[in-house]
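Much of the work behind modern protein science is quiet bookkeeping, done one molecule at a time. The protein below has been through that process, and both of its lines are reproduced in full.


***
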Amino acid sequence: MRDLAAELGVNPNTVAAAYRTLRERGVIETAGRRGSRVRPRPATTARDAIRIDAPEGVRDVAKGNPDPSLLPPLGPALAAAARRYDELPTLYGEVPVDEDFARLARAALHADGVPDGPVAVASGALDAIERVLAAHLRPGDVVAVEDPGWGSVLDLVPALGLRAVPVRVDDEGPLPGDVERALRDDAARAFIVTDRAQNPTGAALSAERAERLREVLARHRDVLLVEDDHGHGFVDLPLHPLAGVTDRWAFVRSVAKAYGPDLRVAAFTGDPVTVDRVLGRQRLGPGWVSRLLQRAVVHLWETGAVDAPAVARAYGERRDALIRALEVRGVEAHGRSGMNVWVPVSDETGFAARLLHAGWAVAPGARFRMVSPPGVRLTVSGLTAADIELLAGAVAAAAGPVPARTYG
């Protein structure tokens, strides 16, 4: 900074302020004594732009959407919420969380072993994660993220002026050694983890892996832990939460995949300080998440609109069938839970091009990766048994050499 200030003929404080502005806007990323580097692309460039468009006649298994036939009809729920609103309209100054929503959400969290904490509502999982990170971190702070992991989180972290460090995952979730290194050597101030149906690999925390991660987190109690359990309602594997080990934590549950993406509702809980900060900032922005939508979700919960075991079984049967069909053809594939299958490949571009020529559009792994080896994501939501055999044959024909079993 002193050299640049001398070259430009300005005060070193001016250069420092310029660096800070560039970092906060996601143009550069800093790595302590290793210096600052221009990011490979702007923080506002969404990873969703890395996609394969499906022209007419090509099957799209790239978008990661749930099967519409497994989603409940929203008409009755929205009508019930509207009737309730007619009787008792929501006005300014009321509490932001519907009492019945908080009661039912807390009961479900308690049943799964999530520690006690106040319940809040956000406009989807990503909104909740952003608000939790903003409540505790400042530009330049380091966040440990799964690699490969949810592309939206990989976009969000630098967009907030934060620096992401990758943590490798396997079928049972993040590798404890990588998490320890990120928290100790990279001084990560936050760690974001997906409990089940990890996107894109389908990983799910096992009891043993969760216990090892708790041991790591117990040595770093000042780390902010953010858990994403978007798999609730369509995954039948048991939950093994990490929440409560650190002093600051948040546990997020979206209803998008089980009840409908357009509901834009996620319940979350956490330690009192974290939830209080999020609600305080939310009050100065949107104010609250529509209580009409909260009441609609309450109706869906109370009426058992989703047969969670049946939905989980439907996705599981398709996912497992695709993995078996690929295995028979000598292709490595992963998908312990959820609606996605991750296939390691040696060349994403060539692989995706060959599959597109064969009539299938897949999600390139670059959308989900930082430093982990190449791969592609296949979504099984809309596949029939016949589709699975056709897709497996096309994948096998397009596949090249595969890397080791650890995704990162």
